[in-house]
Protein: T9SS type A sorting domain-containing protein
Amino acid sequence: MMKHIITITFFLYFFNTSYGQFSGGSGGGADIGGLSSPETFDLPVELTAFTLTANENGTVDLSWETATEINNKHFEIEKSKDAKHWLVIHTEQGAGNSNVSIKYSFTDQNTTVGTSYYRLRQVDFDGQYSYSNVLLYQNGESSTSPLYTYPNPFQDHFVITGDEVEIETLRLFNTSGKEISFQKNGSIDNMKEIDLSGHPKGIYYYKTRNLSGRIIKR
Structure:
């Protein structure tokens, strides 16, 4: 059976509920926990892989693996159609404390044609939590692009995530082909918040070392 697989390797970053989240514009941005955390903490979980597999029967397999776990109560798989409103579709019990590799998996039986976003929310026994990167399922297949932009359309801000080398070379252009300036925020190399609050609504084109695409500001 043919399967379309995308694997992203990264580390979960710690997020304490007493600190704020980034919100990408009023009513139109994506809430991505941890981008603006003002302090550095010990990582409770080291997540070494997060994999999305789109099957021919329409289901989606999600797999992840941890190298170490500290105070890990459980994982929640969250799903969204717009990268803004998230719904918990599965809860998986964690190992608590572990220093050996552990593999987890879940199959989403309720998929639809179109775009779906998936992420992990890791919860400690003390209520603190972390978010993973985001995986994209689009038009019945997992995306193999090393870059994702969401939400699209966006308001003042959008998030770009994926290959850190590509993100480092990001350039933006308007419909006239003029390169525009922008602010790139976030301490995580493979996830950045792009601020276009000072630019008018419309279509913008992005270009990196090897990739290009389009994103719309509304």
Remarks:
- Residues 74 and 94 are 4 Å apart (CA to CA).
